[in-house]
Each structure stands twice: as C-alpha cells, then as structure tokens.
Fold ABC transporter ATP-binding protein.
Amino acid sequence: MNTPTEQPLSGAGVLISARGLRKSYGRTEALRGASLDLHEGEILAVTGTSGSGKSTLLHCLSGIVRPDEGAVTYGGEELGLLPEQRLSELRRRDFGVVFQFGQLIPELTALDNVALPLLLAGARRGHAHRTAGEWLERFGVRGQADLRPGGMSGGQSQRVALARALVTGPRAVFADEPTGALDTLAGEQVMTALVHTAREAGTAVLLITHDAQIAAYADREVGLRDGVVHSGPAAVLGQEAARREG
C-alpha cells in the first residue's frame, strides 16, 4: 500500500478544481467553503466522520449536485453553469461514479450492467458486450458475466460496479465508500483492483472513505471536517480538536 502524503503527484496538472463550495440541505450546511484540487492520474482520499460532507463534496465535484455557492471547474468549464444535457454527457464519457452499494441495475446481468454506459453513448451492442467482457476480466469477475446482482457476493458486485465506472475510459472516477459494505478481505481485493486499473489507465480517483486502511491506498489524503477541507487525515484533525476542547 502507498503511504499518503499531503502533496500531489509531481508534475501532475489540475484536472478538477473546486473553490469555496457551499451546499445546504434545509438548515443543514453540508459544505461550508470547501476547496480542493484533483490532479491528473492521482488517487486522492477524502476522509472524515459521518456527516462531515464527504458525499456532498463528491456529488458536487462529479456534477451530480450543483453547489449553492462556489465553483467546480473541469476542462475550462464551470460545472454549475452547464445545462443538464452537457453534465450528463460528461458523466457518461469523462466521469465514472462508484457508490458504497454498487447500485447495479438488479434486472440486468453483470455483462449488461457494464455494457450499459457504452450503449448509452451509442456503441453497437456487439462492441459494447465485448468491451464489457474485457473489463470484467480485468476485475476478475468474468465468470459472473451472466449473473444478476442478487446472485453475486458483495465483493463481486462492487468489482462489477468498478468495471462499469471505468468501461468508457473516464478521466476521473469518483468512489464513495466503495468498500464500506464489504469485509476486510473483499475490501482489499476491490481496492487493489481499483488502484491497479487506475494506474494502468492514468485515471484520477477521488476516494471517499472513513477507513484509514483504505485511505492508505491513496497518493494523497485530505480531511473534511464541518464541511471544510483540511490537509492531512481527518482522524488526526479530529483528535487535535478533541484535545483543544478538552
């Protein structure tokens, strides 16, 4: 596993930049001026306790949610100003998203789940299925191609979800607690597969986690506390805050 640092990969340019993000849900402030850069090809872990705003930050960076204030910039475009059609295009082509429980479509086989992004992008069915099969092979679940999510283990389902997120060759993958529902061994297998494949493809990964062992797979780690990004692990920041309050 890699030792997390507070510096981005040497020479890597900024892929996605967030500045001053604020987002509220009713009276609850999830983000309170969060700023963050995701660099090309890096694996960045964002850690923090439950309710610190980690998922909201991921949703804003990936264009799923528009911030109330602040800006997210990708390729010279401010995501919050783009029409939904353009955001959908980016999510299909340039961004991949993996959630804690995979969120595979239960009625589809593993092969069809992975092929779906390609089909939505206009690929022919034969090409989409061949490519999907290759990605299932990369993640070690080619043997589950004909199974539906209900017939797979949690680790297998999550590796299928990773294959689906990477099948279009995205520039960035957003992984929201991708091992949170798995046991230790399955979590390690999923992270090893994700890191290896991302390195091979030069894909940047934004990894949301509360687990220090999972965060250790990243090149760099930052903490999110009370809706604000801090350099260094959130767990350390939380301990420092507790000592000050004590």
Notes: The first helix runs from residue 54 to 61. The helical segments are 54-61, 84-93, 110-120, 125-138, 154-166, 184-201, 212-215, 234-245. DSSP finds eight helices and ten strands in the chain.
